[in-house]
Amino acid sequence: MTQDEMKQQVAEAALEYVQAGTIIGVGTGSTANMFIDALASKKDDILGAVASSEVTATRLAGHGIPVLELNDALTQVDSLSVYIDGADEFDPGRNLTKGGGGALTREKIVAAASDQFICIVDQSKQVDYLGAYPLPIEVIPMAEELVSGVAIELGGRPVVRTGFTTDNGNIIIDVHDLKITDALAVEDRLNKVPGVVTNGVFAHQGAHVVLMATPDGVQVL
Ligand code: 5RP
Questions:
Q1: Residues 136-164, mean pLDDT to the nearest whole number
Q2: Residue 184 has what pLDDT?
Q3: From the CA atom positions of the chain, what is the Rg in Å?
């Protein structure tokens, strides 16, 4: 089974977590895209979806799925019923790193506004410790050197993502060579640096359920 076939399988499995009559949150990336395509079959069941990026909003709308701004959604409901998104890595505690596609800030906001975060991944994303995949940090441009210095203090090697601006008009610093043994502590440390908009550690907003595709089927973790 190819990686894309596994992504397809797990994207379809996530449909089970979509509750009729609710507003859901939808993530960004190739696995999330497959979920959006699968969601089209249930578009009349839900009130709408909040997108974690402009790309996702466009894809949802292309299928005729109503796209709501988060603020508008939260005037109708107390919370989104579920947030469904991929990840770059997940550890045994269901802490994640995200932001490979640069959408981490809106992803974290939509996850925080949702009752449940269902993370959809293939088995290549499973790790003992986060950090082998470069950790993205969304940064206000004037804080680039300040934030890079803290990343070095943490043992990382910061590299500014070239030719990339986030949906919020900021830069991304990808931090290589980290070994994240305490995900909550690293998330909190980076959040304290002025100029950091969001970092890609999702420990406070970790997954409630990880659906992991394998060649033998989807595992629920
Ligand atoms: C985007 C993300 C994605 O969820 C992450 O990069 C995984 O992407 P893919 O499903 O393409 O492997 O965090 O910002």
A1: 98
A2: 98
A3: 17
Residue 215 CA to ligand 1 center (angstroms) comes to 20
Tokens of 156: 């990382």
- Nearest residue (by CA) to ligand 1, atom 5, is 87
Beta bridge partners of 151: none
Contact 45, 17 (CB under 8 A): no
Which of 182, 85, 175 has its CA nearest to residue 137? 175
Supply the residue whose CA is at minimum distance from atom 10 of ligand 1.
Answer: 31
Nearest Cα to 50, choosing from 73, 28, 34, 30?
Answer: 73
β-pairing, 209-214 vs 217-220, is antiparallel
Structure confidence at residue 142 as a pLDDT band (50, 70, 90): very high
10 Å CB burial of residue 78 (0-12, 13-18, 19+) is exposed
For the CA of 27, the closest atom of ligand 1 is: 4
Q: Average of pLDDT values for 50-65?
A: 98
Measured between alpha carbons, how far is 204 from 89 in angstroms, rounded to an integer?
15
Active-site annotation holder among 12, 89, 107, 187: 107
**Cα 18 from Cα 42, distance rounded (Å):** 9
107 is catalytic: yes
Nearest atom of ligand 1 to the alpha carbon of 7: 10
CA 102 to chain centre: 9
Average pLDDT over every residue of 35-59: 98
* Alpha-carbon 64 to chain mean position: 23
